[in-house]
Amino acid sequence: MRAEMTAQTESADPWTRALLPQFLDLTASRQIEIDIERGNLEAGDDPLSATHEIGKIAHKIAGTAASFGFGALGRQSQRIETICTQICSLSDAARPDAVKTYLLPALDDLASELNAALISAS
Hints:
Oligomer: single chain
Order of helices and strands: HHHHH
CATH architecture: Up-down Bundle
Low-confidence stretches: 1-9
Radius of gyration: 15 Å
């Protein structure tokens, strides 16, 4: 996977290569925002609000990741966005279980993909 990402980055146009560090910094910042919202979920705060915010952040990551050669990161972000949309449509009583069962494990996967992207770019 690292060789694939490195090859994609090296073959990218100069503009994309020049913007890659900014993309990685911004994506790492977005991961911090997700971590804050995750903390809110784990603290028992309103799951609707935190899930909605996580979905918006994941949408931003998904929209740019593939452009920089990080398809797996983009796909995982899209998966989280979909999960968040589905959880937000659930009843108040059903949301906490859905967050535990689906969203929290997906967020772990997203953190792993972001780590892989950061390692492959270095």
